[in-house]
Amino acid sequence: MSVIQDLIAALGPGAVMTGNNVGARHRSDASLTGDTLPKAVLRPDSVDSLAEALRLCHRHGQSVVPQGGMTGLAGGANPRPDDIALSLERLTGIEEIDVQSGTMTVLAGTPLETAQQAARDAGFLLPIDLGARGSCQIGGVLSTNAGGIRVIRYGQTRDNVLGLEAVLADGTVLTSLNKAIKNNTGYDLRQLFIGSEGTLGVITRAVLRLRPLPVGRQTALCALQSYEDATRLLKSAQLELPGLSAFEIMWEDYFRFNEQAVGLRHFSETYPFIVIIETEGEEPDDDGLQDFLSARLDDGLILDALIAQSEKDRLGFWAVREGLEMDRLLPNLVNLDVSMAIGRLGTFAEDCGAALLARFPQAHVSFFGHVGDGNLHIAVSVPEANEADIGEISRIAYGFVRTYYGSISAEHGIGTLKRPYLSYSRSEAELELMRSIKAALDPKGILNPGKVI
Ligand SMILES: Cc1cc2nc3c(=O)[nH]c(=O)nc-3n(C[C@H](O)[C@H](O)[C@H](O)COP(=O)(O)OP(=O)(O)OC[C@H]3O[C@@H](n4cnc5c(N)ncnc54)[C@H](O)[C@@H]3O)c2cc1C
User: Fold this and answer.
1) Contacts of residue 30, Cβ cutoff 8 Å, sequence gap at least 6
2) Tag placement on the chain: N or C end, fewer CB within 10 Å?
3) How far is the CA of 141 from the centre of ligand 1 (A)?
4) Given ligand 1 and candidates 130, 160, 416, 452, which is best to mutate, with the most ligand atoms within 8 Å of its CB?
C-alpha cells in the first residue's frame, strides 16, 4: 500500500486531505515564500493518532512538515512538493490549570490567545506574547522559541516551559509533563525540541509556567539623543523600576515613518531615538514610572517624555512601534531580526545602515527592536527589488552581524530563509554537533527536511 493509503486506513479519511481538499494556507507561512502545496495534509485529533501517522511515515521514509498557525517568518513550515504536512489544528485544548503550582497544561494546536485568555480567567498571566497571538499555536511558538516584547521581564518562550511532550520521527511518544521549576535529572531533553523548528520531533503538549496577573500598567514614550543614552536609560530602568516589562527602541527614521503611517504625531520636535518603557505592577495607580521619568528629565538623560493617560494613548504608542502598516506601504519589505551584545547595537546599526544605503540608495532602511534583549529588527525595502537584491540585503546585513559576533536570528528562527547563513553565527564544531543530534533523533531525515541545518 502507498503511504497515503496506509494513513487513510489508520487515521480515517477525515484526517487525511489530498488533492483539491488541500487548502492554499498550507502552502506558505507568513514569510509568503512558500510556492508549493504538500501532497497531503494530516489532521490527527489525538496524540495517539499523530504518533501512528509518524510511525507510518517513518516506515515509508515519507518526509513530514509540522504546521502550526503558519505565522512563522522564516519559511519553516513551508512544504516541498513531496512532503506531507502534519497540521496540529485539531489537537487543541487546555487540559489543566493548576492554581497551586501556577502551571497550565495545554495541547500544542491551541492558539496562543486562547491559552492567554484561559490563564487570565483563572487569575494568572501567561507571559508569552507576540503580535501573531490570534493565529499562532503553542506548538509553533515553542518550536520557534518565539520572543516578543515581554522577554525583558519573563524571558523567552523556553524560559516559560516546565514540561513537554513530543513525538519522535519513528512515532515514539516522549512524555515529560514536569511541573517543577527545578529539575536536574540529566540532560534537559525538553530544550532540544524548543527552538528546533520541527526538525527533531513534533510537540504535542506543554506545561507552561504562569505568573501573577499584573493590575496596573504604565506606558511612556521617551525621546533621547543617542544610542548610548538609551543603554544608560535601560540600566537605570532595570535598577529602579521593579515592574519593568517592556523597553523598546526606535531609530528616528522608523518612528517618523510609522507615526505618519498611522496618522499620529507625539512630539513637536524630531529626536534621534525614541524608547517605549512599560511597567506592570500590583497596584492600579503605581506612579513609579512618573517619578523615574521626572528624575531622568532633571538629569538630562531624557530630552522629552510622554506618559499614556488612557488606553487610547497607550495603543497609539504601540501602533507606531508595531509598524503594522509597513508591509502595505513599503514594496518588497524585508524584516531581519538579529541580536548581539547590547553595547554594540548602536554602531552595528550605523555601519549596517550605511552599507545598505550605499548599495541601494533608493532603499528605506530603518531599525527598531527589543534593546533590552540585544535584539534589533532591520526593515529594508528596495523598490523593484529582484530575488538577487533581496539575497544581497541579507548578505550585507548578516556580514555585519558576523563581524559583530552576533546572531542572524534572535527570535524568528532559521527555517529555509536563513539556512544559508547559519555558519555566520555558529562554528563548524557546533554545526557538526547539531547534525549528529539530528541524525540520532531522526536517522531517516523525515522531519522537516531542508530546514535549519
Ligand atoms: C504579525 C506577526 C507578529 C510576530 N511577532 C513575533 C514576535 O514578536 N516575536 C517572535 O519571536 N516571533 C514573532 N512572529 C513570528 C513567530 O515565529 C510566529 O508567530 C510563531 O512563533 C509561530 O507559530 P505558528 O504556530 O504560526 O508556527 P508555524 O509558522 O506554523 O511553524 C513555525 C515552525 O514551527 C514548526 N512547528 C509548528 N508547530 C509545531 C509542533 N507542534 N511541533 C514541532 N514543530 C512545529 C514548523 O514546522 C515551523 O518550522 C510574528 C509573526 C507575525 C505574523
Assistant:
1) 70, 71, 72, 73, 132
2) N
3) 5
4) 130
